[in-house]
TrEMBL record:
Family matches, as PANTHER family: IRON-SULFUR ASSEMBLY PROTEIN ISCA, CHLOROPLASTIC
InterPro entries: ATAP, ATAP_core_dom, FeS_cluster_insertion_CS, HesB-like_dom_sf, IscA_plant_cyanobact
Pfam families, sorted: Fe-S_biosyn
Domain Core: 9-109
Native organism: Ferruginibacter yonginensis
Name of this chain's protein: HesB/IscA family protein
Amino acid sequence: MEPIIKNPINFTASAINEIKRLMTEPTFDHTQLLRVGVKGGGCSGMTYVLEFDQRKDNDAIYEIDDVRFIIDNAHSMYLFGMEVDWQGGLNSRGFTFNNPNASSTCGCGTSFAV
C-alpha cells in the first residue's frame, strides 16, 4: 500500500462524526473507502462527489482522524483547500462544501464553477 500523504482537504469534526456513523451501518461494505471528487454537471458546471467506492489506479489515499479517503489525482486541483462539513439541523441537513477554488457556487452548494 502507498504511503499516506498530506491531506489536500479538511473535514470538520461533525463531518468526521457523520462519516464514522455511516461506516457503522450494517450494510456498510468495509472494502470501500470514502471517495471525494468532482464530476461534470450541476447548475454551475461541476458537482461534488462524496461516496463510498473501491480504490482505482489513479487514486491517492489520505487519512483524517482514522477515516481513510481517496481522491482521483486529476481532481485534486479542484479540491485543494476545501472543507467538508456536516449540518444536522432541521433547516439544513447534509454535507456542505466550502471550496476556495470555486469562482461561483449554486444555491444548494453542491455545484460549482472554477
